[in-house]
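Tutorial, part two.
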Amino acid sequence: MESNLEVWKIAHQLTLVVYKVTQNFPKTEQYGLTSQVRRSVSSVPTNIIEGQARQYKKEFIQFYI
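Running the prediction step on this input gives:
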């Protein structure tokens, strides 16, 4: 799912960069640090989309905190 929000576009680009960078992490970190960093960075654009889909502004803001 994509968004017209500029902040989502930037967060998505950051996610792509982090995934590319973490490909060079040691294989011993594949299920540790690599996984943790990737999950963290991918949650940002996901939260933006989820917040945007909310009906009330208070709910929308909750996903940015």
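The longest helix spans residues 33-52. In part three we will examine how such features are distributed along the chain.
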